[in-house]
Amino acid sequence: MLISPAYAQGVGGAGTQEMLMSILPFVLIFVIMYFLIIRPQRQRMKQHQEMVANLRRGDTVVTAGGLIGKISKVVDETEVQIEVAEGMKVRTVRSMIQEVRSKTEPVKDNG
């Protein structure tokens, strides 16, 4: 016959350690990616959301499209009105504001 019989070779206990050593590089790569890519991106996203939530009238902002203007009106939670030139106002979505150049002081309550 051309087919030879197959016999079990080796003990079952050594296989788990080899499997652990083969998975370890993937775990290390994921941990490195988390600390170098995912975590800093989440922090930037959190800072941007906080900045957008704190927008108020009078702030000078830069939009994602590159327009620089002053917030003339906060329409609602999702939109603001920006004055880009004398008498020229543009409505934009809050999340498209990239940077706040100068903040206005909050209104003080006299009470």
From TrEMBL:
Membrane topology: Single-pass membrane protein
One Pfam family in the UniProt entry: YajC
SMART domains noted in UniProt: YajC
GO cellular component, one term: plasma membrane
Subcellular location, record wording: Cell membrane
Keywords: Cell membrane, Membrane, Protein transport, Translocation, Transmembrane, Transmembrane helix, Transport
Transmembrane segments: 20-38
Listed InterPro entries: Preprotein_translocase_YajC
Entry keyword Isomerase: no
Record-level GO BP terms: protein transport
Quaternary structure note: Part of the SecDF-YidC-YajC translocase complex. The SecDF-YidC-YajC translocase forms a supercomplex with SecYEG, called the holo-translocon (HTL).
UniProt xrefs under NCBIfam families: yajC
Similarity comment: family membership: Belongs to the YajC family.
Role: The SecYEG-SecDF-YajC-YidC holo-translocon (HTL) protein secretase/insertase is a supercomplex required for protein secretion, insertion of proteins into membranes, and assembly of membrane protein complexes. While the SecYEG complex is essential for assembly of a number of proteins and complexes, the SecDF-YajC-YidC subcomplex facilitates these functions.
Name this polypeptide is given: Sec translocon accessory complex subunit YajC
